[in-house]
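Cross-check.
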Amino acid sequence: MTLAESISGVIVIGFSVDYTVHLGHMYKEAWDQPTREEKTRYALTHMGATVIGGGLTTGDLTKICLAKKDAVPCGFIVIVVETEKLEHNLCRKLSKVT
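Predicted model, tokenized:
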């Protein structure tokens, strides 16, 4: 793994964890909401745009990287894709917690 891949990996993983933690935090802040659905709605209303925006920009970057395979190291693309999978699974697990 090159230095650029290592730095990019730390940034991508950091952002993914940050977004997930923000959603989880807002879910917990909705303690006065009686149901999981209302807690989820509260979290997404207060933090969803930020998280979705981050996901879209990461997806766009990945598309650019895939289109220019010779310009971007393959390891970076793998890091982005695998991190997004982990973030998705963590969000699913958090949504099951009441």
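Residues 8 and 15 are 11 Å apart (CA to CA). The radius of gyration is 16 Å. Passed to J.P. for a second look.
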